[in-house]
Amino acid sequence: MACLEGMAPFHVPDAGKDVQTWYKVFGDLTGSQVALIALHGGPGIHSSYMAPLADLASHHNIPVVLYDQVGCGNSTRLAHKNGDHTFWTVELFERELDNLVQHLGIKQFDLLGHSWGGMLGSVYAAKKPPGLRKLVIVSSPASLQTWLQSVYSLLERIPEKEREDFKRYEAEGNFDAPEYKAACMLFYTRHLCRYDPWPEELDASMNALEEDATVYGTMYGPSEITCNGVLKTWTAIPTAHQITSPTLLINGEFDEAQEVAVAPFFEKIPKVKWITLANCSHTAMWEDREKFTQVVSTFLTSQA
Q1: Rounded distance between C-alpha atoms, residue 184 and residue 83, angstroms
Q2: pLDDT tier for residue 303 given thresholds of 50, 70 and 90
Q3: pTM given for the model
Q4: Is 78 within 8 Å of 15 (Cβ atoms)?
Q5: Does the pLDDT value for residue 144 go beyond 90?
Q6: Which residue spans adopt a coiled-coil conformation according to this UniProt entry (predicted)?
Q7: CA-CA distance, 151 to 227, in Å (whole number)?
Q8: What is the third-level CATH fold of 3-301?
Q9: Strand bridging mode 64-67 / 19-26
Q10: Which secondary structure element, helix H or strand E, spans residue 117, and what is its range?
Q11: Mean pLDDT in the chain?
């Protein structure tokens, strides 16, 4: 299978330095199949963990574009913008996606967004960008309010000690406390990835936050369960009805994004299907790789 890596120059006047977006293409963008562009989560959790999407290229001849959003992975890091709420906006990442599509010369494309990537994909699709054909939203909330309802309901299911440790240190704002981190990790093993041990690619993406949390910390917060950043008031619910592309919603049985988080997309988007994958959490692409690939490929290659 052909693979191509490259850098797309991205003009960001207030970045204070030249910015480039790293990308990797699996398959042939010049063929007859519509390309799938993948939007990773976080924000700021680079694309390594989305490696299973390459199966769509190798098994189903669907060209796949992975890329690291600005501020993380192999793309330009902007640590000097840490905490800058006016710089790190959803609109910045919409412009980066537009720029990448133009750089690659893609005329028609599908989008798959995971977690934060699905949030980004939903507001992007609502603006009806030229060339967008289909949308896949994976484990993403329709608003941060519904996301927090979901994760806090799941938090009540972890053992009392870890639950009380989490609540105590969150209230104190002590997000570096070992007990807070231990409670978060217990939550993650149940609702982020149920694999044990985690895949190396997922470990690499998550560990990158320890090295550089500029984007994640500024836009989201200190953990998946605590949101105190730019996105805390984010919602796609008012514009979801404007998404005219056929849309597939995917979440896992034990996902951080439970029904309460996903349902508004299903209620508002006109042409939508929703599949919940059994025995999966937030990373179904790893936990049931074969089923995930089959569900996505069937949707992308169908005539609907």
Answers
A1: 22
A2: confident
A3: 0.97
A4: yes
A5: yes
A6: none
A7: 11
A8: Rossmann fold (3.40.50)
A9: antiparallel
A10: helix 116-126
A11: 97
Query: Which pair of structure tokens corresponds to residue 220?
Result: 């989201």
For 48-87, write each residue's pLDDT tens digit: 999 999 999 999 999 999 999 999 999 999 999 999 999 9
Cβ pair 187, 224 in contact under 8 A: yes
Could you state, in order of their start, the residue ranges of all structural domains in the chain?
Answer: 3-301
Structure tokens at 283: 């990373």
Which residues are the active-site residues?
115, 255, 282
Task: Give the C-alpha separation, 10 to 118, whole Å.
Answer: 22
Q: In this structure, what token pair is assigned to residue 170?
A: 């969150």
Torsion, Cα of 224, 227, 232, 235 (10° steps): 20
Q: SS3 of 188, please?
A: helix
Question: Helices (DSSP H) in 156-288: which residue ranges?
Answer: 160-172, 178-191, 200-211, 214-219, 259-268, 284-287
Longest CA–CA span in the chain (Å) reads 56
Which pLDDT does position 66 carry in this prediction?
Answer: 99
